[in-house]
Amino acid sequence: MAKLRFEALKKLNERGKVHSELSTPHISQFFGENVFGMEQMRATLAPAVFKKVSSAIKNHEKIDEATADAVASAAKSWAIAKGATHFTHWFQPMTGGTAEKHDSFFDALAGIEKFKGSELVQQEPDASSFPSGGIRSTFEARGYTAWDPTSPMFLYGRTLSIPTVFVSYTGETLDTKSPLLKALKAVDLAATSVCQLFDKDIQHVVASLGSEQEYFVVDKALFNARPDLVMAGRSVFGHAPARGQQLEDHYFGAIPSRIYDFMRDFEIECWKLGIPVRTRHNEVAPSQFEVAPLFEEVNVANDHNQLMMDIMNRVGEKHELKILFHEKPFAGVNGSGKHNNWSLITDTGVNLYAPSSSARDNLLFLTFFVTTIKAVHEHADLLRASIATPGNDFRLGANEAPPAIMSAFIGSQMTSVLDELEKNGNLKIEKGDNMYMKLGIDQIPEIILDATDRNRTSPFAFTGNKFEFRAVGSSDNCATAMTVLNLIVADQLDKFFAEVSKLIDKGEEKRLAIVTVLRKYIKESKDIRFEGDGYSDEWVKEAEKRKLGNVKNMPRALDAYLSKKSLDLFEKHEVLTHKEVEARNEIRLESYIKRVQIEARVMGDLAMNHIVPTAIAYQSKLIENARGLKELGFADTKSVLQTIKEISGHIDTIKNGVRAMVEERKRVNKIAEAHKRAVAYCDDIKEKYFDVIREAVDELELLVDDEDWPLVKYREMLFLR
Ligand code: ADP
Ligand code: MG
Questions:
Q1: Which of ligand 1's atoms lies nearest the C-alpha of 210?
Q2: C-alpha–C-alpha distance, residues 584 and 558, integer Å
Q3: Beta strand 159-168 pairing with 86-91
Q4: I want to staple 212 with a disulfide (CB 3.0 to 4.6 A). Which of 67, 292, 493, 713 is the partner?
Q5: How far apart are CA 701 and CA 623, in angstroms?
Q6: Is the separation of the CB atoms in 575 and 487 below 8 Å?
Q7: Which of the four pLDDT bands, split at 50, 70 and 90, describes residue 213?
Q8: What local confidence, expressed as pLDDT, does residue 192 receive?
Q9: pLDDT at 139 over 50
Q10: With contact defined as beta carbons under 8 Å apart, do 154 and 274 qualify?
């Protein structure tokens, strides 16, 4: 039974080195060589055409047919010159991951390579097998993908890949990108209006994202010998190794050489595709690592993150490594997140979350800062819902991950700035430039520069010139969280603008009007601010007192999408219709159910077909042994009998647990309504049985002869490479 495990370990020990050498240390010489971006368009398109394309991108406008034809033709020539034979629309359906369907440029009828503007702009993959949450009935199974010109085309392998949105024939969005683009437009409009209170030169505001991607790496042979990793991406059994992360020696430690080779190799591929990966290091848990790019415009950054995950999987194959993006592949050690560093930057180059040396600009900074905190306060539940994935349920609130309670950390200095501003509410402020001094706003830059206090336990933290949304799961598509964050900030900025305008209309001086509204926001959103230890029990109690949500599981967290407040918010900014939000929730619930169901099945199979037979076989050996001892006249067989008894106990627990869980699944599967079924899968299957069964299996792992144990052990997966 344990054959597979030992074969896998043997393979691991015999692995040779896989090496890729850089042809030049000057990354600048090949960075983006496989991207058909702005530069390539500028070089290959007629100036008038290029102008049309770039203005359409900037202003969220449609591109006309003639322009599309010109772009298609230029892209085709570029791609074919680089060896491409096919093109594909590349999109991000609600299944997670990316999807593509390749068509060749070669038209056999005409005998030439062709690529029309209409093929660039629109394609019709058969949408019927992508999840739609009931939007599409079977007779209208068609959907189409449509070109997103704001994210550059790229050459992947020998295929020209075109980033696209994915919509049903009746116009409902079926992917993660479309609502993101709409939320980004909303935040651009809202933020620009607010900026113009300060500076009329600002025409656009762009949201930026730098996502730090955490992941685990396991040798391919070991991975393949763990059916749970193969089927569910997570180990459902495995006793904690003697050594975990308690030595704290992994974080920022020397990168193991096999992993280093893998990193170098996937980074090269990323650079060619214009993905600005920059930082690499070990993470806290053994075999856990991180890669972080330089930040980019949110939509492009997210496409790059999706593409990078794919590249990592492919390059991993070459190195006989498996990359685990699951939020909690191993119990007892840290889980993985995808910290979303986010800020808003004007087209004049001002980062709106960076305090500056001028008092005037600091009022602008404070406006965005306070409004963002207020938005998080207003929509904390929706923000929580936006990061719900089946895997994240195992991570949030676990001892090392941000809690399921949404709060914002701003640091002690910003706390005192806000306190000061709030306290001096009744102060009579002189007009003129002095006013800034009186507000204490001129002091911010000095304060922030030495703001070294970092709180790693907060789900949403201000880190000097950006916010870091840390609760996002490592397997997730950032678009979901980014849609909500940009949307709620857009909405709050709109409200801010309206409130300030009203005061101005009443004759209030502009700066005073701004400060008045900010003061109000500071007061109203105080409860969402928390500077202490987010992992502590005290915070759970305190948060309860403050009436902050602490929703621990995905099916319940998703409810926040369906509140009237949320539905109205999505509709008001034309991000998603009621129907679309409902359909999306349905898809997420179904996916949650399937994931828990798969885990439950894998658990049952492993327990009954691998663990129990192994335990019984070992128990029989012990029984033989006890009999032999008795025959030889040893009176005291207590210890071996005790082990036999313990093993029996665990076997009983497992068998009873698995049987009861199977029965429960039969019952739960009959529940018609998806939400109720998902909640039942959570409460009556996952919560009720997973830990009980696992505990018994993990105990058996300690009792049964190592030679007989069929599953690759934690110490082997986490420490051998
Ligand atoms: P830290 O290590 O403190 O989290 P880093 O400077 O290493 O911060 O940045 C982490 C990530 O945040 C990187 O991806 C970086 O590009 C990104 N980042 C930095 N500034 C911004 C910004 N203004 N907007 C969005 N992301 C940013
Ligand atoms: Mg960070």
A1: 14
A2: 10
A3: parallel
A4: 292
A5: 18
A6: yes
A7: very high
A8: 98
A9: no
A10: yes
Q: Which residues are paired to 529 by β-bridges?
A: 408
Check if 293 has its Cβ closer than 6 Å to any atom of ligand 1: yes
Tell me the per-residue pLDDT of 680-704, one tens digit each, with 9 for 90 and over: 999 999 999 999 999 999 999 999 9
How far apart CA 393 and CA 385 sit, in angstroms, is 11
pLDDT at 608 over 50: yes
CA angle, residues 457, 461, 462, in degrees to nearest 5: 145
Query: How does residue 431 score in pLDDT terms, banded at 50, 70 and 90?
Result: low
Mean pLDDT across the chain: 91
Q: With beta carbons less than 8 A apart as the criterion, state whether 238 and 331 touch.
A: yes
Provide the b/e sequence for 89-112 (b: ≥16 CB within 10 Å): bbbbbbebebbbeeeebeeeeeee
Structure-token pair, residue 258: 């096999």
Provide the pLDDT for residue 441. 76
Return the pLDDT at 138: 40
Q: What is the DSSP letter of 399?
A: T
Q: Which CATH fold would you assign to the domain 31-175?
A: Ubiquitin-like (UB roll) (3.10.20)
Per the CB < 8 A criterion, the answer to whether 166 and 156 are in contact is no
Question: Is residue 389 within 6 Å of ligand 1 at its C-beta?
Answer: no
* Residues in a beta bridge with 296: 209
| φ, ψ for residue 123, nearest 5 deg | -140, 155
d(CA 518, CA 163): 40
Q: Are 148 and 73 in contact (CB under 8 A)?
A: no
pLDDT score for 649: 97
Of 173, 121, 477, 129, the closest CA to residue 304 belongs to 477
| Residue at 146: amino acid letter | A
| pLDDT band, very low/low/confident/very high, at 429 (cuts 50, 70, 90) | low
* Distant-in-sequence, close-in-space partners of 278: CB < 8 Å, separation ≥ 6: 292, 293, 294
CA 85 → CA 41, 44, 68, 105, distances in Å? 20, 20, 20, 6
Pairing of strands 99-104, 86-91: antiparallel
Is ligand 1 within 6 A of the CB of residue 461? Answer: no
22 pLDDT tier (thresholds 50, 70, 90): confident
> 208 CB under 6 A from ligand 1?
yes
477's CB contacts (< 8 A; 6+ apart) are 92, 96, 176, 302, 306
Domain ranges of the chain: 31-175, 184-576, 587-719
Amino acid sitting at position 425: G
d(CA 376, CA 368): 12
Residue bearing the CA closest to ligand 1, atom 11 = 210
Minimum CA distance residue for ligand 1 atom 13:
210
CA of 209 to the centre of ligand 2 (A): 12
Looking at the predicted structure, is the pLDDT value of residue 137 above 60? no
Query: What is the C-alpha to C-alpha distance for residues 332 and 329, in angstroms, rounded to an integer?
Result: 10
Locate 551 and state its tokens.
Answer: 């929703």
Ligand 1 centre distance from Cα of residue 464 (Å): 10
Task: Determine whether domain 184-576 maps to CATH 3.20.20.70.
Answer: no
* pLDDT mean over 589-593: 95
Fold of the domain built from segment(s) 587-719: Four Helix Bundle (Hemerythrin (Met), subunit A) (1.20.120)
Tokens of 437: 């001094």
Find all residues with CB under 8 Å of 540, minimum gap 6, and list them: 403, 405, 550
- The CA distance from 229 to 518, in Å, is 50
Tell me, what amino acid is at 233? Answer: G
